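To assess whether the prediction recovers the assembly geometry, we first specified each molecular entity separately, as shown.
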Amino acid sequence: MKSIQETGASILSSSPEPFYILGGPEYGVKQRYIESLAKHYGNVVESPTVWSIISLMTTKRLVPLMPTLYVVRYDESFVAELDAAKAATIKSANIRGTVLCIYEDSKQLAKLDKFLPDCVTSVDSVATRFVDSYLRSEFHGLPDSLTHWISEHSENYSQARNICRAISRLSLNDIRGVTDVDLEETFARSKEVTETQLKIAIASRNGNAMLKVLEEYTDSADQIMYSALSVAVELDKLMDNRNTQSPLRNYVNRWNRYDVYHLFTNVYKLLIQSRSITYDTQHVGIYLAALIQFSRIPSVEELHGI
Amino acid sequence: MEFRCQRAALDELSTLSKSDRHSILIEGPTGCGKSWLAHKYAEFVDVADVVVVKAAVADIKEATEKSYQLDTRVLMCIENLDKGVAAASYAILKLLEEPRSNIYIAVTCNNSIRVPDTIVSRSACVSVAAPTNEDLIIYGQHRDATKLSMYQNTALWRCVKTFSDVDQLFGLSPTQVEYFNSLPAVLRFTDSVSDMMWKLGHYSDNTVTPVNLVLRYMMISTDNPHNKKAIIDCMNTIETGRVAAHTALARMLFECKYCE
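The predicted structure of the complete assembly is given in tokenized form:
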């Protein structure tokens, strides 16, 4: 199997190889190579199968074919039928141009690599530093600081490329005026909030902070309630022993035993009520954010008038 | 071995077997012998193969597919259907709507109200009572007469309410029996809730305790009515399965620790 660097150097050179197989999740790299080869040959043909192209190449003709980029996407029959004889046919075929086979999954590559090791490249997630260097080489008009920020904050090379393409459409003056804050507001992906962050927000007794955390929290209402119950159990433990290792240690002074008990009992009641089919669990977060802000958390009886 | 609690159910099953009912629903409290009765029904209808299946979709589907391939007759005993997810009930429904002549289905549950009506209406329902004290003694005698005489006059025996409790009790090691003797110390509720949860849920060797037995032991060990009520509420909640058992336990401990 070839490395991305070897394949990239070969594709971006003036004499690319006749046959490439690229497999893996990083679509941005594949797209870049397609564009580069398309620019090199000037002609692009999309084909459903590899063998239709090989058959084209092995047919005798008076007028030779123009060198062309042939792109074949997700041809599963090629993988299924490939054997040593067919691999030999491909190697000996006089391909006019380049055949580029694209696969999304890396799992096909094992078999392809067995028979065509010089053609196969696994295009996995690209490391940030390579994303940065690819962006700089492709988008010369963008400042290095910008490509650096984009490579750091994008989920993958494909996304980074798309962001660079979008920014490249601005005028030079506007590009120079783009700041980190602008990028953050426009392109920054929402960070996943962890359960620990949620528990800290609850223990902090800061309703605003809690609502902010809940905006990004993707887990279920059930999990929110179990997290709140867990906070009460941890605070109880901290009250018995302030030296306990816990991320909530800094917040124990904001609680007394009365409030810890009523936090637990109120959320527990909510949990039991949520087992009723008619109960709307969407307001759990708001209920909790309101509950923790009471200077003295009311009892279940006081809150529900029982 | 004949138990008073199962007498009526056995008579009913014997009658049902004469009409060759292919689907029965056995309802009764945990540990009263529902699965054993399903096996008895298999004997009544002369079915040698009994497959016990958990109330999970994947298990039911797998057992169903295997049964379809058999030429011989088989009884599928699906345990505790009311504790499984709704999808498990629908997996059985297909089997009931398109019955095969070689397949018998016995569903067990604690409470038939939690079983979909479509299953109840397609099954012959048989109820089993909780075992009486005499039933438990007969069972204990049969299982291990020596251990019965060892435990019968102890507080631990007073915690035993079902046949499976007897099995659990007789299976305790000396260290595990000693654990129950040390429970009153936990009942002072001076530790943190999380520490008490751990102690109630684990023996000293970190293996898991039979929580129901532990809770009943706590019930008979405390005179405090407030604590007794909290323990009863905890046992009821665990029985219904509405919340995780450890959450119900935490609730009980908060109640006992903070509101004595």
